[in-house]
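pasting for the record
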Amino acid sequence: MSVTASPSAVSIVTVRPLEGTEPAKVTVPDAGARTGAPAAAPTSIPRCSPPA
């Protein structure tokens, strides 16, 4: 919560975190679970244009 005091006894109260800034449901893989296949090793791509 954030409270900002302004002149004339006016205060603005902001409830934090703002709506929609946090996930509704936190999901994580189990410890040690795989999240996908390992990436392949990077490969070079030959240039088809003349050298600069």
